[in-house]
Amino acid sequence: MRSSFLLPLLLFSAISLCNFSKGQAGLQMHFYKKSCPNAEQIVQNIVWKHVAGNPELAAKFLRMFFHDCFVRGCDASILLDSTANNTAEKGAVPNGSLAGFEVIDEIKTAVEEACPEIVSCADMIALAARDSVSFQFKKPLWEVQTGRRDGSISRASEANVDIPSPFSNFTTLAKQFASKSLSVKDLVVLSGAHTIGIGHCNLFSNRLYNFTGKGDQDPSLNPTYAAFLKTKCTSLSDTTTTVPMDPGSSTSFDNHYYVNLRENKGLFTSDAQLLTNGRSANVVDKLVGSGGNFFNAFKNSIKRMGHADVLTGGAGEVRKNCRVVNS
Ligand code: HEM
Question: Rounded to the nearest whole angstrom, what is the distance from the C-alpha of residue 116 to the centroid of ligand 1?
Fold first, then answer.
């Protein structure tokens, strides 16, 4: 009787210890409160200055954070430049349209001036994503725990595999999210980020012109929306034209992504796929009804994403320049 009670308790403690040593518990609110008290304010000031002049930047930082976290965890591997011997994540196909790296450089310079070698580039991405999206509301939309450390490896080959493709089906997307300890609910909630930003024609034009290789249209795409998209993306080979993912409010962070999705106006196959599974379609239904539900859910899901495989404590380093590993 006694041992049957003790065994689960021991197992539970072992699992908790294991999680701690992997760094899951290593992030905390205001990690730099004593070591660099102005760090978070410096990030917000610079991000807000840039987003005020260029509202599209919010989408760039939010996507940068996602692409960082999905490859080797949130370790700023996305910021490392390629070298003579290594093509870094920046050189991977899905990262070709990322932007905002110069703003991160500006933040790093300012933070290094205030407190040299204290604040990681990985935390700067997490804060910049939150602050850029929050500019619209003039208050932080979600909490960011900090204490991440920077990694030293960045490979395009890994980014090409680990970053979810817009052509993926539901099973593949759910698996890729699960590999980052993210649930189907997280997948649906985080896809709501597509309420801001743009998409390039070639990433969805197969849905307009050649869905099954017979010159056909994706039957799951709203025909009126498809006709509109065809006026923008006039051929399969157009790789330069972009369209807003949430037409009419593509710089406004809201739950309109789910309204579009319900009307079969999700831009990518990966968006449309969220309606093909009972569980995920249920989550869409909950989010379509109320903006409040979306904001609450997004807070939790992005916090979980920001914990993906993080380096904490003595692991990794704090880069002096976000583009190169310390020598
Ligand atoms: C579910 C899997 C996902 C897939 C397959 C996917 C795919 C894509 C693709 C193909 C684009 C268009 C890029 C371009 O044409 O330049 C895009 C844009 C974007 N994605 Fe995702 N995405 C996914 C999830 C996410 C998540 C989880 C976030 C953030 C939490 C996110 C944030 C964004 C943002 C903000 C943009 C707009 C970028 C811009 O305007 O430059 N996406 N995504």
Answer: 33
CA–centroid distance, residue 64 to ligand 1 (Å): 9
Q: Kindly report the pTM of this predicted structure.
A: 0.93
Rounded CA gap, 288 and 260, in Å?
Answer: 9
Q: Helix, strand, coil: what percent of the chain each, to 5?
A: 55, 5, 40
Mean pLDDT by 10-residue block, N- to C-terminus, for the chain (327 residues)? 46 43 69 98 98 97 98 98 98 98 98 98 98 98 98 98 98 98 98 98 98 95 97 96 93 95 97 98 92 91 98 98 97
pLDDT at 5: 46
Which atom of ligand 1 is least distant from the CA of 242? 15
pLDDT of residue 292: 75
User: Is the distance from the beta carbon of residue 253 to the nearest atom of ligand 1 less than 6 Å?
Assistant: no
Q: In this structure, how many other beta carbons lie within 10 angstroms of the beta carbon of residue 51?
A: 24
* CA pair distance 236, 239, nearest whole angstrom: 8
Q: Is 194 a catalytic residue?
A: no
Distance, in Å, from the CA atom of 281 to the CA atom of 18, rounded to the nearest integer, reads 34
CA-proximal residue: ligand 1, atom 7 (nearest): 166
* The pLDDT value given to residue 18: 40
Q: How far apart are CA 78 and CA 129, in angstroms?
A: 14
What domains can you pick out in the chain, each with its CATH number? 25-162 (1.10.520.10), 170-305 (1.10.420.10)
Out of 54, 57, 61, 66, mutate this one to test ligand 1's pocket (max ligand atoms within 8 Å of CB): namely 66
